[in-house]
Amino acid sequence: MPRLKTKAAKEKLLRSVRKQRLKTITILPSLITILNGVCGFAAIVLAGKGAFAHAGYIILLAMIADMLDGRVARMSQSTSSFGGQLDSLCDVISFGVAPAFLTIKIIEHKLQLLQLNSTLSDFLQRFTVLAAATYLSCAAIRLARFNVENEEDESAHMSFFGLPTPAAAGVIVSLVIFHQETLIKMLEKNSWMYSLCESAIIYLLPLMLFAVGVLMVSRIRYPHIVNQFVKGKKPFEHLVWLLMLIGLMFMKWFRQPALLLIFCGFAASGFVKWFYYKVLNKSEKTSQNTTTAPEISSDLPDIKSQQAN
To answer: Which residues, other chains included, contact 209 with Cβ-Cβ below 8 Å and sequence gap of 6+?
Structure first.
């Protein structure tokens, strides 16, 4: 009897597994999502060959694919759990592994050029690897948490808890592109200033990996740019600001600084708002309560005397 029960339980489990087997998928959104992952892989290959700026642009292309796949799926009413899981797996490659590997390779390249002593060089390399591992872990946790808490209703996608992984990758990528393409043109007549700024950006990258990694797993609220500021009927000022940003992006000399300002400004905006409302505003309220408390207590004897009369 126990063997028969065990065999029946196994057959029941196998039948439930067969019922959950995936039979159909939506082709177009899945192809766009896979393009996202392929772009991340291509960025890793380019970073390994030393083409750091090109790797950054490929990651930006992955961001465009990441924006399109969900939009196409919702427009065709073909959203599915398979698409969400595939999107997260590709995001780990493009916005987790690729920016972390890009930072490691560009730091290694810089240390080879500087030829520092072995102790300092070994410390910087290990610190960069630790920062990259932290960033990758935070990106994976952020995506897993999003999959658990995500709702398919479009009205629920007005904001995010934690910095989105594409925005976190954009901070790193915009710094790399600015360093590789724009900085030397801005300071070509001042070699001393260029070397100072170039070293500052390079050594800032591991710290930025730590910072955006913490922001990804935080509970700081970030707005959904498309749903809040573009989609639906919006004030006329939104159109003006959007046209100004698009115009700046098309200016060849301002394209890389505009990317840097947009990504770093977006990442910092959520933290600044959180710091103001949770820390500064809270301290102001407590100070106001302490100043108004003596005034209330001084009025109490007068009220009592009036009641006695």
So the answer is: 99, 100, 103, 131, 132, 134, 135, 172
For residue 161, give the H/E element and its range: strand 159-161
**pLDDT (0 to 100) of residue 104:** 94
Choose among 277, 271, 63, 256: nearest CA to 174: 256
> In terms of Cα–Cα distance, which of 47, 67, 69, 68 is closest to 57?
47
> Looking at this protein, which amino acid is placed at residue 188?
E
- pLDDT tens for 139-163 read 999 999 988 887 665 555 667 788 9
**Alpha carbon distance 6, 3 (integer Å):** 5
Give how far Cα 271 sits from Cα of 99, 161, 206, 261, 286, Å. Answer: 21, 12, 19, 15, 22
Query: Which of these, 43, 92, 47, 45, lies nearest to 66 by C-alpha position?
Result: 92
Cβ atoms of residues 86 and 33 within 8 Å: yes
The domains of the chain are located at 97-149+159-273
Is residue 62 a contact partner of residue 46, using CB atoms and an 8 Å limit? no
Three-class SS state of 223: strand
**Distance between CA atoms of residues 140 and 146, nearest Å:** 10
* Dihedral in degrees, nearest 10, Cα atoms 190, 193, 198, 199: 140
Closest residue by Cα to residue 95 from 150, 52, 58: 58
Contacts of 74 (CB under 8 A, 6+ apart): 154
